[in-house]
């Protein structure tokens, strides 16, 4: 079902429709990227700016005379560097927010703007399908390798939901999983050390 729709959007509707698809997808993905950084915190102004800059960067590939990619990137970088002056957060937190702002625009806006440029080439639609196929194959290979070689050390002992909650909290707080697991479970330090031993986790099984 997905492939015929994707083919229709990329091949039959033309470059402008593909630009619209890329711009909408890029801005939604940038919003999700910033949401992952913020967690449950409310959206600050710079997230909206990052979503808009992502859309502008993709637009610069379609209409380079309207706005240049350099102007968007330099403006985003300037705002990121001024974040300590513009936000009431500590220097470290405001610079982290600024770099997340820049990374979202660079990673998503720049990548998708090159896809828009690729679609404008004479055989651009075929090249887009090739990029999609390579990405799908790489993601599928990573999934299969992770399922066959990776091990979920805590899930068999405490359950998947509890292990996922520990991993999410450790990621959100920037703390080691072992430390968070010690707080959230009744497993002893020795048992956690054995379960989370890096040598065991990297073996297949």
Regions with little confidence, pLDDT below 50 for 5+ residues: none
Average pLDDT, all residues: 83
Report the portion of residues in β strands.
under 5%
Provide the structure class: mainly alpha
Radius of gyration over C-alpha positions, nearest whole angstrom: 21 Å
Q: What is the helix/strand order? A: HHHHHHHHHHHH
**Percent in helix:** over 70%
Largest sheet: none
Q: Helical element count?
A: 12
Would you give an account of this structure?
Helix 3 packs parallel to helix 6, helix 6 packs across helix 7 and helix 9 packs across helix 10. The longest helix has 29 residues. The protein has 205 residues and is mainly alpha-helical. The relative contact order is 0.09. The mean pLDDT is 83. The chain is flat and about 60 Å long.
Core attributes:
205 residues; mainly alpha; 12 helices
